[in-house]
Amino acid sequence: MKFYYHLLSQPSRALYIFLKLNNIPAEFITINFPNGDHLTDEFKEINRFQKVPCIVDDDGWKLSESIAILRYLMSKYKSIPDHFYPSDIRARAAVDEYLEWQHINTRFSCGVYFQLRKKIDGLDTLWLRGKKFLCSDEISFADIIAACEIEQARMTGDDLFENRPKLKEWYERVKETTNPYYDEAHVIVNKIVTKNQKPKL
Amino acid sequence: MKFYYHLLSQPSRALYIFLKLNNIPAEFITINFPNGDHLTDEFKEINRFQKVPCIVDDDGWKLSESIAILRYLMSKYKSIPDHFYPSDIRARAAVDEYLEWQHINTRFSCGVYFQLRKKIDGLDTLWLRGKKFLCSDEISFADIIAACEIEQARMTGDDLFENRPKLKEWYERVKETTNPYYDEAHVIVNKIVTKNQKPKL
């Protein structure tokens, strides 16, 4: 399988971590989208939507959309621990609910920053209630997707964890569970975060 | 199962059609959100996100997010025809790809009208290529969700089908396959469309 990605793309990072963590055999191919490499005719043949991440399976079958890819991989590789996307229908529905919510919450609001604040507050107050991770006491793909989005927001230089101790604890837990791949996937992001960090008074 | 919905909510309509079409036993309960009925403390107990659609299963278990609900129902009711959300992993991935795309496409763009135009063009040129429905020659939940969104746009009074014959044919096909429930679900929408229709010159 070929995996096309870029570490500045949040869903790319989520899949990157997921693939490495679960030893899924894949050829990792960077598409330099800040340089416009996703806009070539060549890449259009790989993904008609001209976005990363996307995959091409060994027989040439193509798929885009990070969460559609996650579901496909869960069905294909039975060796992946079940908790990433549970097979129990209600546990799975709880993960599905988050995976939909994270989109829908951006849907009716405009302005990226406002969206992120709203979502971060939702994570803190609506999802992280009495559980170690977003949907249960075990990590699922919902946590990986959410943490990678939080990183996107951290690039603004704001301290998102101020007054949100529960969010901070969860974030550390996700990192701990997915490292060293989490840090590996965020090497570019972390450089930008360090550069933009506002000095503490 | 209790199904909370309102016919002005596009994902509510999609589930309404799906439930009726497949004879899924449910108590249909309207939540008059234009009147603010979703903002009561009572409804917050039913859905912490205070949105429709949502369900409460017979034992009190709750779920929101239309597409998470669709997936849950597909797992629960084995009598539902497979093509609505296929069990074959690649056919399913193709439907998943659409169900993600319809969110993601609204993600990085602001302005509802612009979003809808972009999405409608995407339906026409990227999805409806050489197939009767969006993901295969059979109807899936992707088609129902997409048609219900098109209806939302029709309320502006614009003729969305002008110069898009393929889209028009697909739309008629979805209606035909899902009626009488399609028209039943769109009874409020159709009144608004008629009222707002721009006279042809």
Can you characterise this structure?
2 copies of one chain form a homodimer. About 2% of the residues of chain A have low confidence. With 201 residues, chain A is an alpha+beta fold. In chain A, α1 packs across α6. Chain A is built from 9 helices and 4 strands; from the N terminus they run βαβαββααααααα. Chain A is globular. Chain A folds into 2 domains: 75 residues, Glutaredoxin; 115 residues, Glutathione S-transferase Yfyf (Class Pi), Chain A, domain 2. In chain A, strands 2-1-3-4 form a 4-stranded mixed β-sheet, with helices on one face. Chain A starts with a strand and ends in a 5-residue tail after the last helix. Helix content of chain A is 52%, strand content 7%. Chains A, B: It comes from Polypedilum vanderplanki (Sleeping chironomid midge). Chains A, B: GO terms for molecular function: glutathione transferase activity. Chains A, B: It is found in: Cytoplasm. Chains A, B: This is Glutathione S-transferase.
Mean pLDDT of chain A: 88
SSE order of chain A: EHEHEEHHHHHHH
CATH domain class of the largest domain in chain A: Mainly Alpha
Q: Helix tally of chain A?
A: 9
CATH topology of the largest domain in chain A, what is it called?
Answer: Glutathione S-transferase Yfyf (Class Pi), Chain A, domain 2
Low-confidence stretches of chain A: 106-110
Label the CATH architecture of the largest domain in chain A. Answer: Up-down Bundle
Radius of gyration of chain A: 17 Å
- Taken together, the total number of domains of chain A comes to 2
Question: Can you tell me the overall shape of chain A?
Answer: globular
Helix content of chain A: 40-55%
The chain-level structural class of chain A is: alpha+beta
Query: What oligomeric state best describes the polypeptide chains here?
Result: homodimer
Q: Largest beta sheet of chain A, briefly?
A: 4 strands, mixed
Largest interface: A-B, 31 and 31 residues
